[in-house]
Structure formats: C-alpha cells, structure tokens
Amino acid sequence: MCGIIGVVGEGSHAKQLTDGLRRLEYRGYDSAGLVVTFSDGEMQRRRVANGKNSLSELELETSEISSESIVSGIGHTRWATHGRPSLPNAHPHLDCSERLAVIQNGIVENYAELKVELIEKGHIFSSETDTEVISHLLEDEMRTGVTLLEAVKRSALRMRGAMSFVALSLDAVGELVGFKRMAPMIIGTNGDQWFIASDIPAILDQATSFFHLEDDSVASITKSGVEVFAKDGSRSEMTEFVVDWTLDSAEKAGYEDFMSKEIFEQPGALRDTLAGRLRGSGEIEFDETSISNDDLARINKVFIVACGTSFHAGMVAKYAIEHWTKMPVELDISSEFRYRDPVVDERTLVVAVSQSGETLDTLAALHEAKNLGAQTIAVCNVVGSSMARLADSVLYTRAGPEVGVAATKTHTAQIGALLLLALKLSRIKGQLFPSEIDGLYQELIEIPSKIEEVLDKWDSIRSVAQTFSERERFYFIGRHVGFPVALEGALKLKEISYLPAEGYPAGELKHGPIAMLDKNAVVIAMASKTRLFEKIVSNIEEVRARDSAVIVIGNSGSESVIREGEYFIEVPQVHPLLAPLVDVVPLQIFAYHMARIHGEDVDRPRNLAKTVTVE
Ligand code: F6R
C-alpha cells in the first residue's frame, strides 16, 4: 500500500530511487514520483500518473537529471486512497513555498479538519490527498522558526491514523526526516549512504545493515547517521536486524514474472519453513518465544486472525488444530475481530497469520488480543515485521521475499508453519504421542517433492485453462480442508484474471449457489481421496445435471469420476490434513494461465496492493 524510499549521503543518485521503487511496485502502481535535492539548495521533482507505465516513464524522465551534487532524494509509488490516481495526486507533495516535499504510506485520518485549518491560514492545496496536509502542516510549523525535525515531531502529534512518511526541505538540505506509526518503515546503510524505505527489497542491493524503527518514532537521517526520537521527544534507539534474503530472491531470475517464479519456488520455500523445526522427538520449536510450554498447556482455546490468502491458511489450521488438540479454534477476518467483542482471555492463544507482518487490520487485531490479555503468536514471512515484534512468539515462514501481488509460496509456507504449530500444541496438550508427531513431521517434509509433481503439470493445466477461457463464471467447491482450498482457488482467479469466481463448501451448493449453475459456469471440485470423497462425487453429479463444465482435482485411481468433456487434474495423495499444501497448487497454476490467456499482468493486478497498511 504505497511504497516509499529515501536516500541521503555521498554519491546519492536518482536511479537509486527508481530502482528501489521498482522493487516496491507491488505496493501500488497508480503513479510514481520523486524529488531530489542538490548541494546548491535546489530541488527537482518528477511525477508520472500513467498506471502501470508510471514507473517506466518516471525512469525515463529521471535519466535526464544529472546525478552530480545530489545530496538526498525521496521516491514514492502510489496505491490511491484519498484522491483518484492522477498527476496532481501523485507524491511527493510540496508545500506552498515549494521548498519542502513529503511522501506518505498510510492515511492521515483527520486530514479533513487539518486541511480546513490550514486553508483558513492561507495555505493553497493542489491535490485531493491527505498527504498534502502533511506538507502544509510542516510548512506551518517551520514558519514559526523551528527545524524540519521539530516540525515533524510536532505535526506527528497532531495527526491521527496509521502512517509512515518522509519529508525533506531546502531549509535542511542533506537531511531526511521520517515518521512511523503502524505502517512499515525500515532504515538501512552501506556506510556511505543511509536509506529509509517501506520494505527490505527496496534497499536490498544497496544497504548492508538494516534497522527497525519503533512505532511513533521520528528519525532524522543525514550522511553522518540517524538520530531517533520517541513520541515524548526523548532519544531512542533503532534495532538492527539481519536480512538473509539474497538479491536473486527479489529478482525474476529468468522467469517471465514473479508469480510463476514464486509458484515454482514453493517446494524450496516449504522445505526451508519445515527444516530443523523438530528438535527431539515430538518437540516443535518456535523461532522466538516468551510463552513457556506451561503457559501453552493452560490455553483452552485458539483464535486465528488473518486476511485474504493468510485467512485461508488459517482456516486449514483450524481443522488441524481441532483434530490434533481437541481444543476449540475460532477463526476471524482481522477487520471483524477488532470491532466486535471477541471472547478472548489469558487462556486464549491468538495466532496472527500474515505474510507481510504489516497488514494493518491484522496488526490491530493483534494489539486488541494483547490488550485482552491473550497469549499471542505471529506467523509471518517478513523477519522483524511489526507483528513479529509485537507478538509474544513468532513462527517464521522461510519463503523468502514474495513480490507477486498474489500470494503463492507464502501461502503454502504458512500452511506448513501452522501445521507445525498444531503439532506443537497437540504435544503440549498430550493428544498425540511423540512418535505420532514425528510420523506426521516426516509426512510433512515429503510434501515438497509431491508439489514438484504438480508443478510438472504446468503445461497441461494451461490447456485446461485455455479450454475454459471463454466461460463466464467459476465455482470452486470442496469439503473439510478442501473448502479453504476452494476459497483460495477462487480468490487467486478473481484477483489476477478478474473473472467472477466463488469458493463454497461443496455441501452448501444446494442451499443457494446452485441457482447460478448453467452452461456458462465451470465448477472446479476438490476431490482428494478422503472419507468425504463419495459426498463430493454426489455434489459433482448435481453440477453435471445443471450443464456446467466440471474440472476435478483428485488422486490417482479417481479418474473415473469424470465424464466425456470434463477434466481431471491428478495430484498426489497425502495425509488428508496435509492435502491443502498439494491441492492448492493446480489452482494457483490455473489462475495464472487464465490471467495470462486474458492478457492480464499477473504481478500487478488492478486495484490491489500486496501489503495493505490501511483499514
Ligand atoms: C491474495 C493476497 C492477499 C493477502 C492479504 C493479507 O493473494 O495476497 O489476500 O493474503 O492482503 O496479507 P498478509 O498476509 O501480508 O497479512
């Protein structure tokens, strides 16, 4: 949700900003822009608002700027919240004197009242954005004679909402001032230069050391280093963290797009996520924890909170935790959890599942869970992300950076991590013997090779997608853990190909959705061999009777369930609770091909951003 980058120090140049924005583009691509300042006290701004072409055009325009004597710069890629995608609304935003520039990720919730106040004072606005309020607010403070740093400190106290922003001013050449509150922002350095950015990939090839900022911190960054201040104005510290992602992992490495690369990276991502977690018979370890096994033994309920694809991984975990621990598991969409009265106390374990670890709704739900006294654990992919730091314990998925907006490898890695959590809880609750846990762990670590077998079907799944590419509607049905897989299949298809797609529990079809079935619909049925196989076969019959096309995802030996003109995609048979790890892969591939056949950009679907840091 908007990507921001800033650089300051010897040899800074504008290409560092556009290169960084390239790696942040998954956060939004409604417009792109930058400002650079020169040692003689001049500044130049470039902005482009041309959808997905914005960054390429900005790169072209920026190439004309001489790198000589640039001392600092800020760049932004936008996902529009306040104000439609347009040039006037593109960041950076200037103040009236055009001596100060701001980029923001997040929302200034009280921007309207601040804007009225600033207009009354004579400030002239040239955009509809909330961000421009920050520029004028800073200008207003600086008119009283304070420094840029002091202006940011004072203005931050007046603004409500989750946001991170960076400002620079010609009255403070060579300084960037950043503010972070509930929206991601990290700092990096290579010794000569300092960087500030929304996410690690933006500066992965430039920085050698990386630091976190706490919420409500203000950071003044110059070529000599960083000074950080807490909300009360006192000096505070940044925390260094280790990044073991390689640059390669953030590049396409010969693939046509990130999404196909990341689909193929799934066996490795899952292997890394599972590796070395079993320490001693039946003992699964978290990465970081302040919750003891005794504390976990007192837990009598689990609550999983997540959004989107992460929610679907959480749903698989619900089935596994209930089955293996006999504890009740509640599951909630994060944005619902925080605004109702969830029944949570100190005997509840709240599990926040999030690839980015920054999704605002899930982060807020985690805060709420902590306020209610729950024990908390974060399952995140981004090391040191806000949720990872907030939760009492962390279980990392080790999927590496995921750049494609549609989550793929992090989804299967999340399911893997959550199944480990389920096994850990079952051990603590004494529901499974250590030898049973060891056996299930062994089955888990064999899953990556089963996923490889599905990846081999890449071309044949493309033919299936081609066959149905003109159909109007797609329904994914499944039972038990096949239901979250169906939901995920539908989400993948709609988010990258924009085709109407829904996921349903197969047994629910007859309670309404069946009315939508006709010859223009395709039904994709998750039919792995489980005790519910015959029931799903009956549901397939119901579909057939309504003339809809049928695609069955099933195991060897079940091919006979299909009739002439229908399609069977074989997936290896595995333990029923582990099946989502394998069964979701053909659906990802199907969605990918369908989007490509329709000429869509799979890495940058319209209206979406990968990390959603607004409510
Ligand atoms: C779908 C997708 C989104 C995310 C959701 C949560 O492909 O990527 O639905 O799963 O925005 O994001 P995280 O996992 O970062 O909290």
Shape: globular
Hetero groups bound? Answer: fructose -6-phosphate
- State the name of the first-level CATH class of the largest domain: Alpha Beta
**Largest beta sheet: what is the strand line-up?**
3-2-4-1-10-9-11-15
Number of helices: 19
Major sheet: size, sense and barrel closure?
A: 8 strands, antiparallel
The structure class reads alpha/beta
Spell out the CATH superfamily of the largest domain. Answer: Aminohydrolase, N-terminal nucleophile (Ntn) domain
- Tell me the count of domains: 3
Q: Indicate the radius of gyration in whole angstroms.
A: 25 Å
Number of strands: 26
By CATH, the architecture of the largest domain is named 4-Layer Sandwich
Low-confidence stretches: none
CATH fold-level name of the largest domain:
Glutamine Phosphoribosylpyrophosphate, subunit 1, domain 1
Strand content: 15-25%
Average of per-residue pLDDT values:
93
Measured as a percent range, the helix fraction is 25-40%
How far the N terminus sits from the C terminus, by CA atoms, comes to 11 Å
Summarize the structure.
The protein folds into three domains: 244 residues, Aminohydrolase, N-terminal nucleophile (Ntn) domain (Glutamine Phosphoribosylpyrophosphate, subunit 1, domain 1), CATH 3.60.20.10; 190 residues, Rossmann fold; 141 residues, 3-Layer(aba) Sandwich (Rossmann fold), CATH 3.40.50. 35% of the residues lie in helices and 23% in strands. It has 19 helices and 26 strands.
Account of the 3D structure:
- The chain is an alpha/beta fold.
- It has three domains: 2-245, Aminohydrolase, N-terminal nucleophile (Ntn) domain (Glutamine Phosphoribosylpyrophosphate, subunit 1, domain 1), CATH 3.60.20; 261-450, Rossmann fold (3-Layer(aba) Sandwich); 457-597, Glucose-6-phosphate isomerase like protein, domain 1 (Rossmann fold, 3-Layer(aba) Sandwich), CATH 3.40.50.10490.
- It contains 19 helices and 26 strands.
- The chain has an eight-stranded antiparallel sheet, covered by helices on one side. A seven-stranded antiparallel sheet has the order 5-6-7-8-12-13-14, with helices on one face.
- The mean pLDDT is 93.
- Bound molecules: fructose -6-phosphate.
- The site of fructose -6-phosphate (F6R) has 15 residues, from helix 9 and helix 17.
